[in-house]
Amino acid sequence: MAWDERVLRHYALNDEAGRLWTTARGELTRRRTWDIFARFLPERGQVADVGGGPGTHASHLAGLGYEVVLVDPVPRHIDQASAADSHFSCQLGDARDLPLPDASFDAVLLMGPLYHLADAADRQLALREAFRVLRPGGRLLAEVISRYAWIIDATAQDRLTDHGIWDVFDLNLRTGESNTPDRPDEVFWAYFHRIEEVAPEVEQAGFVHERLLAVEGFATSLGNLKELLQEPDHLLRAIRLIESEPSMLGVSAHLMAVAAKPVD
After folding, report:
1. Backbone angles phi and psi of 47, in degrees to 5
2. CA-based angle 21:25:28, to the nearest 5?
């Protein structure tokens, strides 16, 4: 099954529009992502939300005054985003071949392409396209999934006795692939990054890599996460204290690379 078919199947079977709103883990991811946006995006300007799904982040940023263009390969997401908010524009498109002009954006978000593109060459195409459409000095925020995310998540879900789970863990650790290519029933097709891989990938595309941040950090699997989110400012502050601590990065489900396009 081709990459695009897997992505379409995954998002046909899963409610991406509700993922960041209906669970404690989704709320944590959303709040931390917006916290990172607030500190590392330029104060104003044009933002390309590449792989922006049904528009959660695009709507948030448009509400803050940014001019946002959302690009996504899933027609359902484009329909959802267009229906949900008229304050940003939407285009059907692929991160590897963006329907956007050169040097036209102050920031580019890659909140999904770098893990849905399991092949390294495809990830480079996406990063180079982000580089192309950014203005000199523009900022890239690119999200990846940690190599250890599924092991931690499956343990938290009490799935360690599932059939074949240890073979999947072995595959994750050896190759970074979420599952085997010959399993068309496994529709979440992704690449899980090692910490040390992220900066070289970003720099290979021409960016200056500035930092790697844990998105959810250690809070990913806290048993009292729902209660802590009732007063989220305290939890967000605690995560922020060690968001870039190298010894802690691997426990975060998602990681955010912050990089810039050189001025010269």
Report:
1. -125, 130
2. 75
Place of tokens 């590449």: 50
- Domain count within the chain: 1
Residues 213, 36: contact at Cβ < 8 Å? yes
First-residue to last-residue Cα distance in the chain = 42
Both tokens assigned to 242? 């060690």
The torsion of the CA quartet 222, 227, 228, 232, rounded to 10 degrees, works out to 130
pLDDT digit of tens for each residue in the chain (264 aa)?
455 676 777 666 667 777 777 889 999 999 999 999 999 999 999 999 999 999 999 999 999 999 999 999 988 889 989 988 779 999 999 999 999 999 999 999 999 999 999 899 999 999 999 999 999 999 999 999 999 999 999 998 899 999 889 999 999 999 999 876 656 555 567 899 999 999 999 999 999 999 999 999 999 888 899 999 999 999 999 999 999 999 999 999 999 999 999 998
| CATH number where 131 lies | 3.40.50.150
Q: pTM for this structure?
A: 0.92
Instruction: Answer yes or no: are the C-beta atoms of 143 and 201 closer than 8 Å.
Output: no
**Enclosing domain of residue 122:** 3-260
